[in-house]
Amino acid sequence: xKTLQSIMLSIVIGGAVTSAAVAATGGACPHDNxxxxxxxxxxxxxxxxxxDTTGLxxxxxxxxxxPANPAYPAATTLADGTLPSVTRNGNFIIGPTHPVASDxxxxxxxxxxxxxxxxxxxxxxxxxxxxxxxxxxxxxRNSALEHATTAPGDRSDMIVTTSHPGSxxxxxxxxxxxxxxxxxxxxxxIFGDGGRDGFTNETQLFTTLDNLIHAGRIPPIVxxxxxxxxxxxxxxxxxxxxxxxxxxxxxWVEHEVLPLVERNAHVRLTRDxxxxxxxxxxxxxxxxxxxAWFHPxxxxxxxxxxxxxxxQQWPHDTALPGGAWQYHSAWSGTPRPNLLVHGxxxxxxxxxxxxxxxxxxxxxxxxxxxxxxxxxxxxxAAAIPDGMHDWTLANENMARALAAKNxxxxxxxxxxxxxxxxxxxxxxxxxALEWVWNGYVPVKR
Length: 445
Prior knowledge:
By secondary structure, the protein is an alpha/beta fold. It has helices spanning about 5-15, 20-25, 200-215, 235-240, 250-265, 285-295, 390-405, 420-435, and strands spanning about 55, 65, 75, 90-95, 115-120, 130-135, 150, 155-160, 165, 170-175, 185, 190, 220-225, 270, 275-280, 300-305, 335-340, 345-350, 365-375, 410-415.
């Protein structure tokens, strides 16, 4: 992994082309690609960076995936409007309609938790100072990525020249359940893309927690919504934090966020990994998994909607050239003798450095609920036709990898659903939370 200093040096040097890249938008915001990139290899599976279009309806954007695609692991198809039992594991297909679960709605007579808010700044951070800022065209989200290129001969290595050091502020919202006794050790859920400006619908989540806790379906938990550092994808602070496949984000949370949570919300958080859950959507969803993967001594329960189990890690890491894609699948490029991954360590080997993590690592004590839609993201940036940017395929491959290693997981494939689909979240969130917390027993003191 490159050091922060080398990252910043390279992007400052590359900053000379920033204005030209932004100007290239011509004042119009580019749209996500969501189709087979023009430079893609979609015809020869024996060649590097192959994109398999089997089972895709390319008349829609993103393409609609067939849940019966023979490339996907077997799944149980449920009657429309129903969900898998909160005690069952494995792969399930739901939809095409997604009725709202009543437990996501406020009901009279249900006690409400309280929410405490505070702000964090990069000036006070150890691990994420300075921050990372990418120059996009005004009001054009991710526009710089539309003009990015990849390294010669390596379509997995996006070159982003418009990023530079910067600062960030973020809000943190802490939900404390009704009836919490100050000073009592409590289990908790921490989720990314939180805070007042985050992508997560905190009102929906906190209302659901009110209902489930009141009904005794989950333990009384604290929920911590942490805002991202800003922007999205390669070259952004959000991408740097969430898409990097390492223990850094979990360590930042442990040493810089949780002490402030305890101080500002007047709570005492458990140190038991069985009582600590992570949650996220899209890139913060893969970050939720990464927190538990690299630090299972800290977290044992994970919930993610449309997790970005694809090659979004930036800057490129030669030890994990496929980024989060390598949790479940091999790097799609030409094999290169380099390093062999053993969980969180690497050793010299004559084998490829693109081997996947889960199949080559002893099973970890992680419980994982995750979901993808049949119209989830598909190569949104045409500039990186790397064979590793199909969100649905990535999640299907993850289900296969988890099953092969006998993990405890529940995977939901949602028909008639897009990326982090609001209807699917409203239908599944209560059951997903109940499944994640199933079997929790607090440590006796």
